[in-house]
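Postdoc handover notes: sequence design on the structure in folder B. Input tokens:
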């Protein structure tokens, strides 16, 4: 993953961290359960978006650009078959329910 991708993901995670702190406050203040559930849903959706972004970056920079300058060391040594298995694993993790 390139520096720009890491920075974007870090900013998103920082916002999610703030959401989680807010959730803890709602729970400690005995907030209405439906309000807590709404905020949990928002935090979960935000994490899903981060997961999609990480997967996209991985596919672009580690799998598709295997021999390029942005490729991770772990994928530079993979055969084409291993790269397809890696892609399949990424997609399975992304759609995991």
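Designed sequence:
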């Amino acid at each position: 993953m390139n520096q720009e991708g890491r920075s974007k993901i870090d900013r998103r995670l920082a916002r999610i961290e703030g959401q989680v702190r807010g959730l803890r406050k709602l729970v400690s203040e005995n907030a209405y359960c439906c309000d807590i559930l709404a905020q949990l849903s928002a935090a979960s959706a935000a994490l899903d978006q981060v997961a999609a972004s990480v997967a996209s970056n991985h596919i672009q920079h580690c799998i598709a650009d295997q021999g390029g300058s942005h490729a991770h060391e772990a994928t530079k040594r993979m055969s084409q078959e291993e790269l397809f298995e890696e892609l399949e694993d990424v997609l399975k993790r992304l759609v995991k329910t």
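Context for whoever picks this up: The first helix runs from residue 3 to 28. Don't rerun without checking with the PI first.
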